[in-house]
Amino acid sequence: MNDSAASAVAIELRDVRKTYENGALKVPVLFGITFNVDRGEYLAIMGPSGSGKSTLMNLIGCLDRPTSGTYVLDGVDVERLDDNALAELRLRKLGFVFQGFNLLARTDALRNVALPLFYAGVPTKKRLARAMEALAEVGLADRAHHQPSQLSGGQQQRVAIARALINDPAVLLADEPTGNLDSKTSDEIMALFGKLHASGRTIIMVTHDEHVAANARRTIRLLDGLVVADTVAAAR
Description:
Layout: H1 3-7, E1 9-22, E2 25-38, E3 42-46, H2 53-60, E4 68-73, E5 76-77, H3 83-93, E6 94-98, H4 109-119, H5 124-137, H6 153-165, E7 171-175, H7 183-198, E8 203-206, H8 210-213, E9 218-223, E10 226-232
Parallel strand pairs: 3-8, 3-9, 6-7, 7-8
Antiparallel strand pairs: 1-2, 1-4, 4-5, 9-10
Helix pairs in contact: 4-5, 4-6, 5-6, 6-7
């Protein structure tokens, strides 16, 4: 692979396997997952309960490690990293959006968004300025000083998305991002993801919802720990 081709790949998985161990009991979950995700790609990962999609998302998010195989994130060979280096990579290269928002209840939107920069050691003035820019990107600059209880579910998810964007991550990971939202608000959040993708963001989304997955350009389906389909939608 030449350098120009390598630079176009955000994520590379090669024969990734995961087995959980509980004493003598071994529970295999993933059985040799192989695929690439290019920069700027919008991918949905789908599968029934027990298919391995949550385990795969945890591996991609550097929240867990493969039992075997190769995972390269933005040019970094993940399995070679110790725990501290893995945490640093996760902070710098990945942004997370969860179903439950995971906002600090007594902290306003601006400081919720700025939190990753606090852990990265960015000075207060700079991190708050960047947090305001991220809130503006998701259309919530006018709610910067509202606490989560003063925001709707859709607004809370927008704050969570802004927080995920604050470090300008190589990949934005979304785990059931509309699971706690009504259908109208869900459509609004998916429209926001569409705008982020159009601006060049790389997005990987785990969902069980076919309507939500239809927003992605590419869909990978898992069954019993294996990739059983990898399809790209026709250009719209």
